[in-house]
């Protein structure tokens, strides 16, 4: 029985991924289909080419350089202190309770995460203007982003620990993900 349940779960995830890539919403966000939203073809949204969207050179975007964007220095954007931003404490942000936040929901409307090869890497549900819920490409909740400034979102684990990673707006069509050192990971959100 357990083997059957695992097989059915695999089929559900496999068909959900296929369905997502055939979905018109996905096609509008697919950087393989639209070079305008592909940071490897559109240098205006590539932080290695456009230094104004790169936190290594634009310190206003970098939480390690800008105290207002750093959750260890600004309690207003720290979900361990400001529980309204924490999905573990706020059921309206929690995809376990709010099923419409899950990418498998028919009501889901969100963003797609792509890796440095422009392959689907995960999903983002916009829960509020300040919190976006992150899922891996199988639809498993793996963390969330909290708005840290006009153009920056810090990434937290499900329990609420800041990873040091953050999204920066690309001034056009989405976001780029940076690691703790301010280096672009190649991961982008559309």
Helix amount: 10-25%
Q: How many beta-strand elements?
A: 8
The biggest beta sheet is recorded as: 8 strands, antiparallel, barrel
- Total helices: the number is 2
User: SS-based structural class?
Assistant: alpha+beta
Radius of gyration: 17 Å
Total count of domains: 1
Give a description of the structure.
The model is unreliable at 2-19 (pLDDT under 50). 35% of the residues are buried. This protein has one domain (2-189). The chain has helices at residues 2-22, 24-29; strands at 110-114, 120-126, 131-136, 141-147, 152-156, 162-169, 175-178, 184-189. An eight-stranded antiparallel barrel has the order 1-2-3-4-5-6-7-8. With 190 residues, it is α+β, with helices and mostly antiparallel strands. β7 (175-178) and β8 (184-189) form a beta hairpin.
Question: How do the strands and helices of this protein lay out in sequence?
Answer:
Blueprint: H1 2-22, H2 24-29, E1 110-114, E2 120-126, E3 131-136, E4 141-147, E5 152-156, E6 162-169, E7 175-178, E8 184-189
Antiparallel strand pairs: 1-2, 1-8, 2-3, 3-4, 4-5, 5-6, 6-7, 7-8
């Amino acid at each position: 029985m357990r083997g059957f349940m695992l097989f059915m779960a695999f089929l559900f995830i496999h068909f959900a991924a296929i369905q997502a890539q055939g979905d018109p919403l996905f096609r509008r966000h697919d950087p393989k289909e639209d070079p305008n939203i592909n940071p490897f073809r559109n240098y205006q949204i590539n932080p290695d080419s456009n230094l104004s969207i790169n936190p290594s050179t634009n310190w206003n975007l970098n939480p390690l350089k800008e105290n207002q964007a750093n959750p260890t220095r600004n309690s207003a954007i720290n979900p361990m202190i400001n529980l309204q931003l924490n999905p573990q404490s706020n059921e309206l942000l929690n995809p376990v309770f709010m099923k419409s936040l899950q990418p498998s929901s028919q009501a889901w409307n969100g963003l797609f995460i792509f890796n440095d090869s422009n392959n689907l890497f995960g999903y983002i549900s916009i829960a509020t203007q300040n919190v976006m819920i992150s899922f891996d490409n199988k639809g498993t909740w793996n963390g969330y982003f909290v708005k840290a400034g006009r153009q920056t979102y810090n990434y937290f684990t499900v329990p609420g620990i800041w990873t040091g990673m953050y999204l920066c707006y690309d001034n056009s069509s989405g976001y780029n993900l940076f690691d703790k050192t301010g280096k672009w990971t190649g991961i982008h959100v559309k």
